[in-house]
Amino acid sequence: MYIRRNSEPTLLDVSRSFPCVVVYGPRQVGKSTTVDYLFGDRCRKATLDDLDDRTLANQNPKLFLERYGWPLIIDEIQKAPRLLDEIKRIVDAQRLLWLKENKPRELMYVLTGSNRFELQEGVSESLAGRCGVFELSSLSQSEKYGAEGKLFQPEMEAALERERELPNAYRTRARVFEDIFLGGMPDVVTGESQRDAYFKSYVNTYLEKDVRKLIAAGSESAFRNFLSILALRTAQELRYDSLASNVGIDVKTCKRWISILETSGLIFLLQPYLANVSNRIIKAPKLYFMDTGLCSFLCKWPNAEMLESGAMGGAFFETYVVAELIRNFQVHNLDPRESLFYYRDIDQKEIDLLYVRRDVVYPIEIKKSAAPVKPTKNFRVLEKFHMKIGTGLVVDTCDKIRPVNELAYFYPVSLLGM
Predict the structure, then answer these.
(1) I need a labelling partner for 135 at 20 to 30 A (CA). Which of 57, 74, 333, 346 fits?
(2) Which pLDDT band, with edges at 50, 70 and 90, does 4 fall under?
(3) Residue range 63-80, pLDDT digits in tens
(4) For the whole model, what pTM was predicted?
(5) How many domains does one find in the chain?
């Protein structure tokens, strides 16, 4: 069963702007399926998982591209990096021809890749200015529930309008945690694969196909342990020295492994908000897993009920909210790193999330309960930045939008990114 992706209109817009499109994302989030759905009726397809195609692409990239022509979809492009230079040559020649003949440009190549760590250097060197880059993540809650996935707007007027458009969006906290436990991998969401068996295979596949060549020989066991310990720290500040000590590796290796996971799209590092105001701000990033299903599997939580009531319930709820916002930005081809931050200082004053847009900062607190106590107590600390402070949000499991006080309003997690 194909699940419509909210990113489809944006991806089509990108394809109309460039002769080449690169779609990144972690393994099995639906890149090939989405590309086939959007472009399969007008493009031939080659997959470099096929040994014969991969061998030809690596040994004779010119012949490979002549054999298939264009428009062409190439799946798992990172397995034949020599293709990129040849694609550059063909695209440049075709663009010159279009210019001479005064013809509009067309889409020539759609490339998908699940190992951005390997591919990004080649793309930036060979295809800079020639390709549009799009990142696809696992399914958002709006995609799972068939909503449009409009760009998130923090203002109360926009939130109330969206609430009126989606009168049946509310889900109980128990239902939300079922979604958190399940995660957003398409095969798990559609029931094609049993959750635990799927994630066990996913971790093994990721280690074997994506990581083994990037880490030192014989480090697979340590890396697997690293993944599990990292999952236990989701929604926490990332302290490389402490993490390295727990895993039994040096800090340099720890930083490299974090970089691999971040570039692969499995984790996101949320940076602290710094405006050169004070050195009292904590400078460590906060770590979030992008798929809560994978994260809960790595933490060995047996079911959604125990996850909700357990010691990590709040951390997983926060991870879910932050990941939903990141996906919402990506769907609209926006960089979440330009707008999403967190705040914490050495006096332990903390705000879970800051949404910075132009000269306005919107504070956001994330609370698992539907009636948190004093959720806006630290909002006024933002006055030191001398920016306009927008109306804040308290994202929780409430059933409707309502004011908290003059500083903020309660916002149902069920509406987030919908």
Answers:
(1) 57
(2) very high
(3) 999 999 999 999 989 889
(4) 0.92
(5) 2
